[in-house]
Amino acid sequence: MITGARVGGSNLMHSIAKGSNQPYKFELDIIKDWHLVDPSLHVCKYIPFYDQSSPDFSYDFFKLVEVDKVVEKAKQFGKVLIVNRRDKMEQIESLYALKMQNDNRNYVRWDESLVNRDSQLFRNLYAYNLEIDKCLKYFSDVLNIEIDYYEDVYSSKTLNDPSIVLDYKYFSPVRKLRKKFTKKVIL
Q: Region 76-102: what's the mean pLDDT?
């Protein structure tokens, strides 16, 4: 799986691994960590590059990713998914929460009311998402693979490739980390 950040990729990876009874490799560097991967055995989740904390960082995926090597490695797998999200605002909010509220722990519930959409970090994550979208589109075009979108996958519980077996427990709403907390007023 080649994914963006905060697109439901971790639950999807677990769902595929469990559904196909295969081990998984979580967010490894597909180039540097290749010696840890057996493409005929492992379900792998790969994010091509990560956001940078510097507010003036200029994202250019061609400078950040060895695209030819990623394509070469991807072609060694029996099946490849490219996963992204259509709702960019929700994706950026989730990434913001991961950075600011959850200390990079990707399993902690978070309150969307604490997201500062006017912050420099939020703007940086927006720029990051624009570039990761271009990168995923590039891989989609080069590998001739249609992008699976979070909203479609999690609402229909299917992928563009229906031959991939899924374990549906990973699609349960209780696994969602975004919570809309309501305030109670006591009189």
A: 89
